[in-house]
Amino acid sequence: MQTFNRKEMRKLFSSEKWKQGRAYWQTGLVLDPVQGSTSLQATVSGLTAAHRVRIRQNGNSVTMDCSCAEAGSPCQHAAAVLWGWFLAPGEFLKAEQLLLKIKALSKEEAVELIGQLAEEEGALLQRLLKKEQSTQQLTGNGLLCLVSNLGFNYGSPWANWRLFEARYRSALKLIVRATQERNTGGWEALFGLIKRTKDLLTIAPEAKNLLLPLFFEATDLFLLPTFPGLRGEMLNEFMAVYLQTPLEKVEEELFHQIIFKLWVKELVEKEKLCSLLSSSDDPLKLCALKKFRLRGLISIRYGKKEDLEELIDECKSHLMRLLWLLDLLEENSQNEEAKTLIKWGLSIFLTIEDRYILRYRLAQIYRKAGELRPALFLELLNFKERPGKAEYLSLKQLAMAVGEWDALKKRVDGYLKCRKFVNSSDYG
Length: 428
Known about the structure:
Structural class: alpha+beta
């Protein structure tokens, strides 16, 4: 028999349930323990009933079933059986020994025993009589019902979330099987799983580190050959996860990559996606930034010239949008387009603060391209308006690089005096 790892099993239980399980075993509440090739079975006495417990191991996966009313997390009855195995494995009757006892029965005794089994475990006996492999056959509606009710309980978060993770992945396997059998209910179940994930992220944002990796595993199914496309309500729910969840940069990039793949394969409703990304939200809101970034990336990488022009036109109302678009252009090595956009912005945004920011951004692009003289001109204009020590040193370094410091030093010192700053010699 495979060995149940005590340390790993302990992680599946709350401290209280694990402690209770040990007490149950030590006080003799575990009855008739049986050891199978990959399982442990026993009956555990309770106040109102005796509970049947089965613990199965399949590779690194462990499942626990108990007839008690506990829901969500492994119960104290399962813990009691495991404690028995760890403390006294010799007390577990091996399945082959049980088989020898059965073979020693007379025909009448065997029939009577099977009759009792039919009363207690009729479903198991029926499956065994069919001589079929135990596989979970679900209708589309049944699978949708399961994933729609998928959830985790509170109390021992680590144990409950680990159990939730196992159930989530089991649901994905069942969905894949359904789609392979051309059961359209599989895709409906995937939609239900995405919707359920969105709901859980809303009510339990602290579980994001658990839920998002599972969510991305679910979206891997979008690339199956039979996937009908990210359309309708499924697209709405997917985008709701993207827009409503606070994301790290790498997480946002993963969402982008999913959309890009579907866009190229024409598996997403392009017009509806662009409609979802069009927004009159306050530009300072995180949701507005996400919409603008994704829409901008689609326009830059896959759109037409008029798509980008439409985005630029939206920048007239708020400098923040213009800066977002500049970031996207520079990230995608569209430096010439970025220069043109800034020059256009300088004709639209006329306040001192806005022009200072735009000149600074343009100077940085020139610096990166090795065009130091136009960068020097822009930084000199900015220094005139806002002289400071860091700005002075940066300007001096740039001017020396192009051999203009001697010619500019007197003018720079004059800006400092006009602003009643200390002498430039104090700046080094």
